[in-house]
Design brief:
Number of helices: 13
Number of domains: 2
Shape: elongated
Number of strands: 8
Strand content: 5-15%
CATH superfamily of the largest domain: NAD(P)-binding Rossmann-like Domain
Strand order of the largest sheet: 3-2-1-4-5-6-7-8
CATH architecture of the largest domain: 3-Layer(aba) Sandwich
CATH class of the largest domain: Alpha Beta
């Protein structure tokens, strides 16, 4: 028996998920949907899918697992559109960087027999410098040795979380269980803040007096510090910030405080304190990058286990029987 996994949204993340699951086609049927016909066809051509289905209700009606690899601005409408066609016991995963708001939409719009679990993917360390997005940047090993945040609303059955965690492992990554608020807090600092800081730097420099000449000498430091604003134009930054407002404001306050400290050191000509802050930042960056490359997260290490086949894991959990919510 095969399991249908439907992937909605075939950009870098969605297509990479499909490619990563290609080794399990003996037990999986990978169905793909995208709003663009041409993207569906190209994803199928590249081996990310077993079949395409441009009719969205038809794409989900036989699915045991649904992955929404969509901008957060499209998720609520998608929930509304697919709700009446969902199988009993289906697990719906989404990859958006914000979770609390999406979980509210899921509770409001999805039927009781469908279970929502949020996952936030991180790319493998070897792809950190890759600025490409979209289907052209999809890779079967995009998530190798990376971490996925996994979170679900209170009261969700444990089997739904188990399924999501197993799904992540079959993508070559490790699941890190969090609650919805914790996930949003982590992503506010690690994902949204860098893009907003990049935005602020650009607004503080371009179109300002002197930029006409400054632009001629702006080099690698400027490129590195401002490139985050171009990270993913498909995922509107304003939507991410607004849907995670409290955490983003907290992250911005911490950033403003750090800038004020640097300003105070400069104003007071406190060279020692200024150097300490710079050295601490350089050390922090080096340590983080080394940890990210090694992927040796000691706090997550567990005794290795032999996982059953994907079919056994999925059909032996929530998709194979009805469960009661805790």
């Amino acid at each position: 028996m095969t399991i249908q996994v439907t992937i909605i949204g075939l950009g870098q993340i969605g297509a990479s998920i499909g490619l990563a699951l290609s080794k399990h086609t003996d037990s999986l049927l990978r169905v793909g949907h995208d709003k663009e016909f041409s993207v569906e066809r190209e994803a199928h051509k590249r081996g990310a899918l077993d079949k395409t289905e441009h009719n969205l209700p038809n794409a989900v009606k036989d699915a045991k697992v649904i992955v929404l690899a969509l901008p957060v601005s499209e998720i609520r409408e998608t929930f509304q559109y697919i709700a009446q066609d969902l199988q009993d016991g289906v697990v719906i995963l989404d990859t958006a960087p914000v979770k609390s708001e999406v979980a509210k939409w899921a509770q409001e719009l999805l039927p009781k027999h469908a279970y929502y679990v949020g996952i936030v993917p991180a790319v493998g360390a070897e792809f950190l410098g890759d600025k490409k997005t979209g289907l052209d940047s999809a890779k079967p090993d995009l998530f190798k040795n990376s971490i996925f945040l996994v979170s679900a609303p209170a009261g969700s059955p444990g089997e739904a979380l188990d399924l999501a965690s197993t799904f992540v492992q079959f993508l070559g990554a490790a699941p890190l269980l969090t609650d919805l608020l914790e996930s949003d807090g982590l992503m506010a600092s690690a994902h949204i803040l860098p893009q907003l800081v990049s935005t602020a730097l650009l607004n503080a420099t371009v179109n300002q007096p002197g930029w006409k000449d400054s632009r001629k000498v702006a080099g690698n430091p400027y490129v590195s510090a401002t490139s985050a604003v171009e990270y993913d134009k498909e995922e509107a930054l304003k939507d991410l910030a607004l849907h995670n407002k409290t955490n983003v404001i907290h992250a911005l306050d911490a950033m403003l405080s750090a800038l004020q400290d640097l300003r105070a050191d400069l104003e007071n000509e406190n060279a020692e304190a200024l150097q300490q802050r710079i050295s601490a930042a350089q050390d922090g960056h080096a340590n983080w990058l080394n940890e990210r490359i090694s992927a040796n997260w000691s706090e997550m290490q567990k005794t290795p286990v032999d996982y059953p086949s994907l079919t056994e894991r999925l059909f032996g959990s929530i998709t194979g029987r009805k469960v009661k919510k805790k």
